[in-house]
Amino acid sequence: MQLDAYTNQPHNPTPRKVVVIADATFSGKHFGMLVFRDPHTKENLHWREIMYETVSAYQLGIQHMQNKGFKVVALVIDGRRGVREVFPDIPIQKCHFHQVKTVTKYTTRKPKLPAGVGLRYIALKLKNSTETEFTKLLDDWYNKWGEFLKERTPDEYNKRKWHYTHKRLRSAYFSLRRNLPDLFTFERLPELNIPKTTNSLESYFSHIKTALRVHRGLTQERRKKLIGFLLRYF
Fold it and tell me: Is CATH 3.50.50.60 what the domain over 1-91+189-234 is classified as, yes or no?
């Protein structure tokens, strides 16, 4: 088989100033690749095998690129918590698509509560809003529904305990509020031409998964070689 003759060689792209999109894809339960991609040249600059998508894996990947001479001027990520803290000197842009997906996870696509309907509407406006416009929408929503978010329900079995009545709606709101500083980095640094999403990698990962489906039945070692080949040449 041709894959058996293929050997993954060190990848040495040309060092430069670069905006990087970083995201992970998994093939199987505990085998994944964390990929660092230049969205402007469509080049995968670095990738590393991972069992889990951790903050330390992102840190090691960026450090590897910096050691190779790259100057990472901005980093686009899917919103994984903790990544921002390990890169205090690198502007972070959080993916709009993943942010909307997070809100939808908590509110569903068809929220029943009026507050949920309003919050999901705001999330869907994200891609076409400026930071000022979006912040006002979020502030206005909270001014209307803030007390609603604070409602508590007594514990059924212990009346001295309680939980927030609208926990999922709170999670959706605070996800938007917490990520707000990193949702409009592209707007504050227009000269860097930072993408608003990780879509460049998402579509690329779809290509890899299609290839793996076509070649289903490969051993783990051959799957790794196929992924490595695709990351390098396609």
Answer: no
